[in-house]
Amino acid sequence: MNLGIEGKWALVCASSKGLGKGCAAALVAEGVNVVVTARGAEALEATAAELRKLGRGEVRAVAGDITTEAGRLAALAACPQVDILVNNAGGPPPGDFRQWDRDAWIKAIDANMLTPIELIKATVDAMAGRGYGRVVNITSSSVKAPIDVLGLSNGARSGLTGFVAGLARTGLAARGVTINGLLPGVFDTDRVRSMGAATAAREGKSIDEVIEGRARAIPAKRLGSAAEFGAICAFLCSVHAAYINGQNVLADGGAYPGTY
User: Fold this and answer.
1) What is the pTM of this model?
2) Which of the ends of the chain has fewer CB neighbours closer than 10 A, N or C?
């Protein structure tokens, strides 16, 4: 299927590895010009080099912290126009809410709610003026089924989801701009493995045992891959997804137990 987005420009946040990298790769493969950004310059440059080997679409790398104003301005300046915005940021740490002070909450909200809103604010009106725009917010399956130890993430990402639910139903959709959430379940990423390592240490198991246990609990009996997550993102950014708006697309191998 031709997604109809060749030649467009995308800004993909937190894209040096994991799900963000998967999204950037899928877009570049479709001929999209992509600006990738992340805090770690070395990993980011390595990713950019990999993406350029796909042979379609220009790739620009901007190292910086997207949760800061300076980081956002630098990333936006590298993108001649933002037709596609993929919001993404590392999730806050797990724990007990009794351990979190105001600073912990503000940090989580800044990264996982306010930063995406600032980037949306900076780009959607120009998208609407050109008659085409796609915003995909990578959030978490926890906005549908909260995860008890991820209270910071539950709160911040749910706040973004509620905000977007209203914004997506304004006049932007009639001018060709869609805004959707893409909700990952358990994917094979560094974050999942680092959390698995903590569980393994606590329970006296190996990381592989913990990961295998998580996989067994998923109907698909495996963890997701960044490549298949990126493919979903690319479709949501395509001309074919113009009638999908204000939705939260769950990719979790069937783990969510509800009907709706």
Assistant:
1) 0.94
2) C
